[in-house]
Write a structure and sequence with these properties.
Largest sheet: 8 strands, mixed
Number of domains: 1
Strand order of the largest sheet: 3-4-2-5-1-6-7-8
CATH superfamily: P-loop containing nucleotide triphosphate hydrolases
Radius of gyration: 18 Å
Order of helices and strands: EHEHHEEHHEHEHEHEHHH
């Protein structure tokens, strides 16, 4: 299973959702990989720490290798590195990845990530792909490589309007590049149950038959603590209400598997 977490809007919690779902996946026994395609490297720092020496091989090296023929190129698994958490690996990002975008686009390398994931499928049960907050080469590469797309969504009017454009782009990608891609669901993140506006916006999305998931991720300072400690919630505070919300979300996503 390959799941891409994507939203063109920034600040909606893509990396937090990616890492915490992946950590639960690994904790429940699945061989799990996070692929970080965001030049901000948030998922990479979340799992490896800000002060750690980042691995030499990363996603930037991988994409750069596709631009020229190499007799002795690294294997797919060489780009993947262990995290401190059992069963959870990462293909880390690098800020330099953004500099490659125009070269990769001009050389039509849009399916190279899909090819890499096909090689990695025999090593991992679940692959979670974190994306930049833009509909660009890297997010499109992720959508071409994935089976499912999960959209983190914060409940405000600007986010609701942006969501319609995002869904249109997903449907166009499905038609043109990846017929098996499905919109798995919209994750309501940083949810405030006592506020009236989120309920109204969610009701509006449901009226339009958009797949809003039943699980809600509440707003909590515990998430910031998790980022600071570079430790996913399931390892930092397994009984916390925020952690349990992610556990419920993971169960909802995987109930049909």
């Amino acid at each position: 299973m390959r799941r891409v977490i994507f939203n063109q809007k920034g600040g909606v919690g893509k990396s937090s959702v990616t890492v915490n779902l992946a950590a639960i996946s690994a904790q429940q026994g699945a061989r799990t990989l996070v692929i970080d395609l965001d030049p901000q490297c948030n998922s990479t720092h979340y799992l490896l720490g800000d002060d750690s020496d980042l691995p030499e091989l990363d996603v930037s090296n991988f994409f750069e290798s596709t631009l020229s023929f190499q007799l002795s190129a690294p294997s797919a698994v060489d780009y993947c590195h262990r995290t401190p958490f059992e069963g959870l690996d990462i293909l880390p990002s690098n800020p330099d990845i953004g500099d490659l975008q125009s070269k990769l686009e001009s050389r039509h390398k849009i399916y190279k990530l899909r090819d890499l994931c096909e090689q990695l499928d025999e090593h991992y049960d679940a692959i979670f792909i974190d994306t930049p907050p833009a509909f660009n080469f890297f997010s499109l590469s992720a959508l071409c490589a994935a089976d499912r797309c999960l959209i983190p969504f914060d409940c405000d009017e600007f986010a609701r309007q942006a969501l319609y454009s995002l869904v249109h782009n997903l449907r166009e990608t499905q038609a043109d590049h990846n017929e098996r891609l499905i919109l798995e669901g919209i994750v309501v993140n940083q949810f405030q149950p006592r506020a009236s506006l989120p309920a109204k916006i969610i009701a509006s999305l449901e009226e339009q038959e958009l797949p809003v998931l039943a699980s809600r991720i509440p707003s909590s300072v515990k998430m910031k603590e998790s980022h600071l400690e570079a430790k996913p919630l399931i390892h930092l505070a397994p009984k916390h209400k925020l952690t349990q919300a992610f556990v419920e979300l993971y169960a909802e996503l995987n109930k049909a598997d």
